[in-house]
Structure formats: C-alpha cells, structure tokens
Amino acid sequence: MFIGRHQELAAMEKRYAGTRFEFLVIYGRRRVGKTRLIREFIRDKNAVYFMATEQSEKEQLINLTAALREQLPDPRTQFLPQFASFEDLFSYLAEAASRQRLVFVIDEYPYLARAVPGISSILQKYIDNAWGTTGLYLILCGSSMSFMERQVLSYQSPLYGRRTAQIKLHPLPFYESMRFFPEWKDEEKLLAYGVCGGIPQYLLYLSQYATLEEAVQEEFLSVSGHLQEEPSNLMLQELREPAVYNSILTAIAHGATRLNEIAQAVGKESGQVNFYLSNLKDLEIIEKKKPVEETATRRTIYQIKDNLYRFWYRFIPECTSLIAMGLGKRAWKEKIAPDFPEYFRHIFEDICLQYVQYLVATEKIPELYTQYGSWWGTDPQKHRGEEIDLVCTSDTDVLCGECKWRKEPVGYPVLATLKERGALIQKGRQMHYILFSKSGFTAGLQEQLDTDEAALISLKNILETGKV
Questions:
Q1: Which of 193, 324, 352, 377 has the most crowded CB, counting CB atoms within 10 A?
Q2: Which residues lie below 8 Å from residue 57, measured CB to CB, with a gap of 6+?
Q3: Roughly how many angstroms between the first and final C-alpha of the chain, as a whole number?
C-alpha cells in the first residue's frame, strides 16, 4: 500500500501530462521514501529506471544498458551487452524520446557521479543539445543531500539552471504515519510516530508487529533488529568522527540544548562543537530553534529533529548490555516504558503544531498564520522565564497553545496561565487560544469557557486528523 505523498505525485503527474522535456531533481535523507515515490509514479508509464550502485564506470554502463534493454524493448538493443559509451546511450534515449513520452530515472545519482566524474557535464550537453526538444522526462534522485545540493542544484554544477522542478522529500506527517498501523490501538499509532517519526521504511518495520511494545523489543532491543544500530550505521556512511557526533546527540537527547551545555557535555570548545552541529543540521538530524519572531541568537537552542535519532539516543545506549544478553523485554519494562511518557511529551508538542498546520492548510480555521513554533523568554513584571508550547503568528493574529500529555484532565488554570503568557507576545494583535489534552478537560473548564475564548482539542480530535 502506498501512503501519502499526494502533493508530490500530483506535481509530477502535472508535468508528465505535458509534452515538453522535463528535468526533475528529487532528494532527501535515506529511507524517506524517494524510490517508492518514483516507482509509484512510473508504475503505469513508459519508463527506464536505473539505480546506481558503488561500482566502476564500466559496470555502471553495463548495468544501465541492461536496464534500458529490459525496460525499453527494441530489436536493436536486444542482444547488446553494453553501449560503447554513455554518450551513445544518451543519444539512443534522445531518439526514443523523440517518438514517445519517456521517463528516464537515475536513482542514487551520487554513486554514478563518483564513478563517472564527467557525467554531469555529459548530461548538460544532452539536455542543451539533444533532449530539450524531445518528450524525455529525466529524474535524478539522491540520498546524499549535501551532494545533491552542491553538485546538482548549486550554481557551480554543470546542471545548474537545467532542472524544471525539484522535490525535497520530507518525512510524513503524524496523521499519515498512523495509517501504517490499521490494526493497532489508536494511541499506539501516535506513539509509533514518536519512536521513528514519519520515515516510511521505519514505519513498515514496526508495522509487522501487533503492539508498540513488541515492535520496539524486536526492532530496537534485539541484536537482529533492523533499527538496533540504524542511526550509528547512517552516521558512519555520512560523517567522519562518528564518536564525537554520538556524544553530541546523546547530550542533546538528555536535555543539553544550548551550545555551551553541549560543549561542556562532550568536552570540547564551543567553536569546535559548532562545526559538528552544522553538519548534523545539514543532514536534518538536528534543528536550530529560536522563539517565534525572535532574532537574538542568545536564545538559540538545539533539538534532535528526527524522532528515530531522538528515541535511539535517549534510550538505546543505556540498554546495550541488556540487548547483548537477550534481555530486550526487561530493557523495555525497566529502562524505556517508565520514562516514555516524559519523552513523548515533547513529541506531542510537535504533533499539536502539525495539527494546527493541517487546519490552516485545509482552511478549517480562517487565520493564515505565517510563522509556527514555540516561545520562551522573560516576563519583565515577574522577572522569571516563561514558555508557550505552541505559537503561530501573522501580522494581525496570534495563536497560543498549551499541549498536555498527562493522565489528568486540563482545567481552567492552564488557560488562565496561557492567557497571561500570551500577553507577552501580543503586540496589538488579535489573540486566539488552543488547548490540547491527552486526558480531556475538567467540567470546571468547560463551564467557565466562553466558546470564542479557546478551542479544546482532545486526543480523539488529533487521532482523526487526515481521515477521509
């Protein structure tokens, strides 16, 4: 079953419906679903799909010839072991695409580019001189985001200015991630998002099991689990000095969010740590955050953006010995389950923000907010720090929200406090309030609540997001 990616598919189909040459660049982190999206797109189309691997130039040409021979039957190539060169193969594609709409996909393009250093220049030549007048629909796809941005999309690339569209694929939102678990209890579907985020491959791994507990035990807390070493393996592929990056992510996962705190935790100078943080940010493993509408850098914090990394670095290193001894069940019960509600509390804030963005995108609320996030700062009258879980702003309106993942229902004092804090960022704009609660709301709150004063969003409301 193919889940989500409606906007991306629609954009790809719209361009395919034309007759002119198209050059689409698709990129994003590993396991995010790029190949699955491409395969869904070409499923009913005349296409040649080639996935490059870490092989020599000769082997790449042999394999690309085989892919073309098998997927684009032609008596002239039926017994051809390989084209004499990439130029000959691309000339053949130009001829084929002059007679029909033809999709040509090079997946994991960075591998091909490393094996054939001049391939981008060769592609440039054919785009400019041969393919531009044909019905070819070229797709270059890659998981190395730094390579794709610098060697394909940037000004220095021979391919610069040739693409007609690009798609940077992001993880699925929580409401589409939950669809991977049709048989699970509703709340556990949400918790699964907290464990591995919106990465389709990881969601598929977890969906093989009957419960979240079983899925975590088998995939994280077993020596044979797919996800037992996944983050560390990806770090080895993408980064040098993985030990330093591991220390940084462990520090952030355990609450060190400011630069000096992280530097102190890993035993390095702040200037050195900045370099590592920048690389993690480029890979979208961490994010650099400021309060909404804040410009001062002194309030900058760092958080792990990817939920799999957030979960893994928060819990798995402490369970390593138990995993090695085959005690995954005890690791879950004693090391993870007791602290999981506190861990998920921060994930819940992100889910609530996605919920508001969904309401704006589907025009279920009239305000068009342009900035989304959270806020923290000082109350000048009380001389103390304050925080607001959810803040959305525009030139005319502000939405402030509180997100409570706890067993007790939310009462009126929570709203009263939220309104006090909201006044700190009002700046003459219309204020709106929203409360999210896992366990519902007290009768007292609902009795005192004016309908226009605040929106009350229950867990049931969140779980129904995106349902058709």
A1: 193
A2: 115, 116
A3: 16
Instruction: Give the 3-state secondary structure percentages of the chain, helix then strand then coil, rounded to 5.
Output: 50, 15, 35
Distance (Å, whole) CA 434 – CA 444: 17
- Please state, in angstroms and rounded to a whole number, the distance separating the CA atoms of residues 78 and 22: 27
Which of 304, 311, 313 is closest to 285 using CA atoms? 304
Residue from 38, 46, 88, 36 nearest 64 by CA: 88
Host H or E run for residue 374: strand 371-379
- Kindly give, in sequence order, each residue whose CB lies less than 8 Å from that of residue 379, ignoring residues fewer than 6 positions away: 385, 386, 421, 424
> Residue 192 and residue 198: Cα distance in Å, rounded?
9
Which residues of 130-228 form beta strands (DSSP E)? 136-142, 165-168
Q: Are strands 47-51 and 102-107 parallel, antiparallel or unpaired?
A: parallel
Which of 253, 295, 251 is CA-nearest to residue 273?
251
Residues contacting 344, CB < 8 A, separation 6+: 191, 194, 405
Q: How confident is the model over 385-442, as pLDDT tens digits?
A: 999 999 999 999 999 999 999 999 999 999 999 999 999 999 999 999 999 999 999 9
